[in-house]
Design goal:
Length: 107
């Protein structure tokens, strides 16, 4: 088996997307369905490395990593807060500590 990891944005994982991955036979498309969770694996059968004993091809396994943004604009935070409200999820606003506020003042 050959393994590779592809990073998708959280919006792509939630809404679905199509990825292109490199294989020994060239580029292959992988359909990532809506609601894909971090760590999900997609197996492309017969697209991995050949076995030294049998000559049969192994599989190409694509691991999905979901990227969560670390900094949001005010508009992005507002949209995500509204999304959480629609889902009935509680979101607690993060308050900066004293040193973070002082550091921000000097930027």
């Amino acid at each position: 088996e050959l393994h590779c990891e592809r990073v998708v944005a959280m919006t792509q994982a939630a809404l679905g997307t199509t990825l292109t991955v490199d294989s020994l036979d060239g580029e292959q498309e992988v359909v990532v369905p809506a609601g894909t969770q971090p760590g999900k694996r997609f197996v492309l059968h017969g697209l991995g490395a050949p076995s030294l004993r049998s000559g049969r091809r192994g599989d190409l396994v694509v691991h999905i990593a979901v990227e969560i943004p670390t900094r949001l604009t005010d508009d992005e935070a507002e949209v995500l807060t509204r999304f959480a409200e629609l889902r009935g999820e509680e979101v607690h606003e993060h308050r900066e500590g004293l040193f973070s506020r002082i550091r921000s003042a000097f930027r």
